[in-house]
Amino acid sequence: MKRLVYIILATLVISSCGSTSLTRSSLYPKMYEEKPVTLLVMPPINNSANVDAKELLYTSISRPLAEAGYYVISPSISMDILKQESAYDAELFIDKPLRQFHDFFGADAVVFSIIDAWAKQGIGINTKIRYLIKSTLTDEVLFDRSCDLYLDLSADSGKASKDKGLLDVLVELAVGALNTALTDQIEAARKANYFIFQDLPVGKYDNLYLQDQDFPVDPKDVTRTVK
Predict the structure, then answer these.
(1) Is the pLDDT at 165 greater than 60, yes or no?
(2) Which end of the chain is more exposed for a tag (fewer CB within 10 A), N or C?
(3) What is the mean pLDDT of residues 123-148?
């Protein structure tokens, strides 16, 4: 019996050690094989009940990709063109050949995002977002990752309110709610993007281009609670 316990414990240790051996090249080898330079960001696919989620997320996608060393086609320009060409609904293209986006935009890969959850939950905001980067030349999935993120909005405001009258406090709360509701949602999207793209192999315009293959990474799908 004692021998069996040792075997089980050893197996658990080996498994746990193996789970930390993920690297950028082992998890996303095709990013290094195809070496995309120019990315086209498609409008998000919104599966949530929040009708504003699509627009809110779209505004926050390009920056982390550009900071990772990629040339990102201007979202405002590409959005206008996609609308004119009746290509605004990304769900029509996510499982189709993407060569047309290479020929039309010069994109090496297309970035798809899928919103599965985006809602106020308790004292915070819960978002669940998945990203796919697909090659326009081979239609291969180069990058696939999701983040289930809870943005905790709790704060200790009682101390600051002690010296204020009730009316002042109520007015501040009302104005604050209006001003921060949108900001909080955008912040949730930005933080989800951070955890999704923090392990993305860097692009051509980053100093570590093709030198980050052995960087350790988290598993493909991550769950985070942040403030």
Answers:
(1) no
(2) N
(3) 96
Q: How far apart are CA 142 and CA 78, in angstroms?
A: 21
The CA angle 174-180-186, to the nearest 5 degrees, is: 155
| DSSP letters for 150-209 | EEE-----HHHHTTS-HHHHHHHHHHHHHHHHHHHHHHHHHHHHHHHHTTSPP-TTSTTT
Is the CB of residue 133 less than 8 Å from the CB of residue 110? yes
Q: How many percent of the chain have pLDDT more than 70?
A: 80
- Distance in angstroms (rounded) separating the CA atoms of residues 151 and 78: 30
Answer whether 128's CB lies under 8 Å from 143's CB. Answer: no
Domain boundaries, the chain: 23-204
Q: What is the pLDDT of residue 214?
A: 97
Distance in angstroms (rounded) separating the CA atoms of residues 179 and 130:
28
